[in-house]
Amino acid sequence: MEAVKKKKIAQQDTDVEQMVREFILDDHPCVMAQSVFADDNVTLQQYGTMSGFCPYSLLNDLKDYIADVEEDSMKFQTFIATFENSTFETEIAFEEALWKLLHTLHTIDTHPWDETTSADPESPKFSFSLLGTSFYIVGMHPNSSRWARSAPFPMIVFNLHLQFELLRKVNRYTRVRDVIRRRDKAYQGSVNPMLQDFGIHSEARQYSGRAVEKDWKCPYNFNSK
Description:
single chain, alpha+beta, 5-stranded mixed β-sheet
């Protein structure tokens, strides 16, 4: 009986990974996302529900992921947390759950904020920091109005901020950005109105994928430690 149970769990893991892979590789506009899947540079971990999982598990998995990353490598790498048993009927409901989860992770993280970015969600230099490392967060869920964010189930993508800075240093960032935006426009008919380059407006406005209001403010504060 135990052997059968383990087999079912393994099959579920395979199904989740395959669904995410197909979602990205099936003409997704983000060429960087397609690249990491094509090169198997993705760490994908499953947590069930966003409300009932243990945040320490995610934090520990991110710690292992950071330890394994080749910091000076030009090969893009990413970490994806899936919450395949969660359902959100609206974009606002997902946004609220996303920020609640990020704040929970922040409260249990004992490391200081990455000194290369700001902890103020209203600052144009804001980038979410865990374990002393900054991440550009991409929230995805089935009911997102942006097709590129309409994943088969809720997911949070943790992209290392450092990797975008490496692209800038070798003058590749602008070209990659423009390709993605052209593909996004061809994919849905318009470019995501929330997308801005780092340093212009706070990237916190982009995390949930929703077209937030002009006066939108992050529901949580992240005091630098």
